[in-house]
Each structure stands twice: as structure tokens, then as C-alpha cells.
């Protein structure tokens, strides 16, 4: 019977690097969205 209960690794095991590529992309995305959100909230309202 095949071992159906064991889960295969989907990603290669990376070492204890502090900043790998995925973490860097994640932080850049969070910072970009946060900066754009702050700019949208702080801009002058458009009065008619």
C-alpha cells in the first residue's frame, strides 16, 4: 500500500538565511501597500 498519509515537501528546505528572496518580496509588497494606503488617506479631500 502506498504511503498516502505522508506529505511531500513542496518547497526545498532553505537554510537559516535571514533574508531570502520570498521574504524580501513579501516585505517590499507590505511596505509598498502600506505607503500607498497612507498616501491615499493623507491626501487632500476633493471638494466639489
Automatic annotation (TrEMBL):
Regions that span the bilayer: 24-42
Key words of the record: Membrane, Transmembrane, Transmembrane helix
Taxonomic superkingdom: Bacteria
Name of the featured protein: Uncharacterized protein
Amino acid at each position: 500500500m502506498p504511503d498516502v498519509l505522508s506529505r511531500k515537501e513542496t518547497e526545498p528546505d532553505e537554510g537559516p538565511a535571514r533574508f531570502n528572496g520570498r521574504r524580501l518580496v513579501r516585505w517590499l509588497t507590505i511596505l509598498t501597500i502600506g505607503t500607498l494606503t497612507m498616501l491615499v488617506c493623507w491626501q487632500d479631500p476633493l471638494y466639489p
